[in-house]
Please model this.
Amino acid sequence: SRALFSEAFEAVNLNFKEVFQKLFGGGDCGMRLLDEEEILECGIDLYAQPPGKRLQNVMLLSGGEKALTVFALLIAIFMFRPSGFCVLDEVDAPLDDANVRRFGTLVEEMSNQTQFIIVTHNKRTMEMARALHGVTMEEPGVSKVISAQI
Amino acid sequence: SRALFSEAFEAVNLNFKEVFQKLFGGGDCGMRLLDEEEILECGIDLYAQPPGKRLQNVMLLSGGEKALTVFALLIAIFMFRPSGFCVLDEVDAPLDDANVRRFGTLVEEMSNQTQFIIVTHNKRTMEMARALHGVTMEEPGVSKVISAQI
Amino acid sequence: LQLEALELVGFKSFAGKTRVVFPERITAIIGPNGCGKSNLFDAIGWVLGEQSARSLRGQKMDEFIFGGTKKRKRSGLAEVKLHLKRTGEEPLFLSGVELDSEEVEISRRLYRSGESHYFVNQRRCRLMDVQRFLEDSGLGYAGYAMIAQGKIDSFLTAKPLDRRQIIEEAA
Amino acid sequence: LQLEALELVGFKSFAGKTRVVFPERITAIIGPNGCGKSNLFDAIGWVLGEQSARSLRGQKMDEFIFGGTKKRKRSGLAEVKLHLKRTGEEPLFLSGVELDSEEVEISRRLYRSGESHYFVNQRRCRLMDVQRFLEDSGLGYAGYAMIAQGKIDSFLTAKPLDRRQIIEEAA
Ligand SMILES: Nc1ncnc2c1ncn2[C@@H]1O[C@H](COP(=O)(O)OP(=O)(O)OP(=O)(O)O)[C@@H](O)[C@H]1O
Ligand SMILES: Nc1ncnc2c1ncn2[C@@H]1O[C@H](COP(=O)(O)OP(=O)(O)OP(=O)(O)O)[C@@H](O)[C@H]1O
Ligand SMILES: [Mg+2]
Ligand SMILES: [Mg+2]
Model:
């Protein structure tokens, strides 16, 4: 229904802005409905403005900026429908050191309410974890887990 | 024409296998024509077998394995139509340390014939470069280059 | 509900019995390319009834069952068990019966025949019972809680109308 | 031909005069997200006549001209110059005339009006002359020499028929 969709849209947009500003250290962003008349039928575009830059369609941002913006949106949706745990697979791959650091701060902040399981190749992200599981394939084609806790 | 396409296809497939084996430290791979009858009209699929694993469609490989396999193919095409220089933008992003190391070895080997310009966030890849250009945006929205040579 | 441990056998590249614990607020899964990290991710989604996780990577049923290597025979079945612990005080019901244990165990099995079995606290039930149970216990939205490798890229390349679906489903 | 230096002004986020040298066999371009590295990549492709590099990111002509910020006015034109050095002995011809210098300079200018100018060794010429010249000097396949951010992903998600195009063009 129209009301349900609008409510979800507005709530997610608020979360989106809040999370984006934490990940980028400022700036602005928002989802836009492509047709204000047909909100139950139209598509959605994303607009983002990293600090100091102009607001533009997310497609015009850099590789890392796009990835971080969409991650902010997906987390915003999770916050609207939370579930006590969150599993991330290599979301930090295209990020530079400063963005990885802010990503880590957000995860640590959210971890009071949410349990995180994070697949990563990034050393900084690994440092934030309190338990580490190493997956190996010593025997080709067969995975094993070696666990370590910190 | 049929002959031109076949010739290119075979030559690229040979390079593909050679480069793949250097990047993966072994294994096998190949492009396959989806319709042997209609080679001027049919699509192409990629098959790859990292060392110790079974030959399968590239889509069934892991994120990093897929990326490295397609990179091998794009380099194979470059080798078929070389141009004295090669520019790469963050192709090493999804790779683990061992794969980044083999990627670096391939670039160093090819650099005798080919000049490389590589955009990267990866420390190991940076170490291989003999000149480094840092791009910054101190003034928001305005890029500047700070050059350093090693 | 919070996650305590994951057990799997015969699931994708995890041929042998494997156990992974989650005793902390933040757990990292690390390892080289192709070693099985995303397969572990898939196992969590799969046992929670997610059918679509990475369904691009081969749609056949036995995509999930260990397919064998030169040295190891393929498995006849894939099984994943997720151990959870209750954090709240509210009662949890499964098909109308109240669960009184603090520990909750959800299992999913897939045989090569295509037959699927589901279990909650070792009691056999249907997929819809598991899904209903998960919804009631606040885990019904596992889809939003899991960001798969490549999900961000596919969202970016998706048409505006496909993107809207993600909000629609949450609404 | 080998690359010696790249000069640009008013091109994308490079508002001011910028010079980047390539004295070595392997040069790395580094910096934080969004600082302009891929824009430098684009500049190289653009001056070599590549029209399609990252054309997903906005198809308008002024995608390439510095668009201005709160503190800086937008530019009226974008200019990129690529300095190359000859490595071989064979003669190089531009529109039938032999070039005898060891240094080769290729320039491309784009005005907000949409007007485009091309120069080889400071001699104005048409795009097709530049492209012809590049083909003759072994740089005609710059498209295969440049792997853009996201090209690998889009190749993976491309349909088999689109993938074939890449081989067809090379044949
Ligand atoms: N049913 C199956 N049986 C056996 N092996 C499988 C099965 N399904 C997937 N695999 C194997 O699992 C491997 C992929 O594992 P996965 O995608 O988890 O890697 P990863 O650790 O996430 O790597 P990356 O860091 O590159 O993302 C592949 O080699 C694939 O062949
Ligand atoms: N015509 C233009 N005028 C002004 N700024 C522009 C123009 N075109 C692109 N930009 C800006 O350039 C920036 C993108 O730069 P680029 O894609 O080169 O980043 P990058 O260094 O490659 O980052 P990443 O590491 O995330 O890939 C964006 O902030 C974008 O707004
Ligand atoms: Mg993976
Ligand atoms: Mg970039």
In short: The first strand of chain D starts at residue 2 and ends at 9. Residues A 141; B 53, 60-65; C 12-13, 31, 33-39, 63, 65-67, 149 surround adenosine-5'-triphosphate (ligand 1) (CB under 6 Å). The two ends of chain D are 22 Å apart (CA to CA). The mean pLDDT of chain D is 88.
